[in-house]
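--- STAGE predict ---
source: upstream dedup step, 1 unique chain passed
mode: sequence only
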Amino acid sequence: MDIKVRLLSGGARLPARAHPDDAGADLHAVECVIIPPGERRDVGTGLALSIPCGYAGLVMPRSGLSFRNGIMIVNSPGLIDAGYRGEVRVCLYNSGSEDFVVEPGDRIAQLVIQVVATPAFQEAASLDPTPRGARGFGSTGS
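--- STAGE serialize ---
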């Protein structure tokens, strides 16, 4: 499968995998953004994607940025629906103690293309019972 990518600015780069068997393809910034500690900023990638119907793009954090700098993606994973044709922007959060500077060309996230099911939803008066039932957060132990 190929995904058409529109480069929206001169510094935009196609998503690229570091290794052929990587699930995620790196997304690069096209602008300089300063993220103060405890704050979030959206960062442009300069890309618009044509994701086919039946698929979605998941924008995931880069482990190195998270571990070394405390940079996270606010709505991780970010979801790119098949019908969206606007710029892919990444909402980064700085959980560190110093300003974090994003420079054009920096790898800021990774993109995973995933098959998605789109079932119809039907209202029901009851649901099939399971051993877990309605027990929620923390119900499987600490």
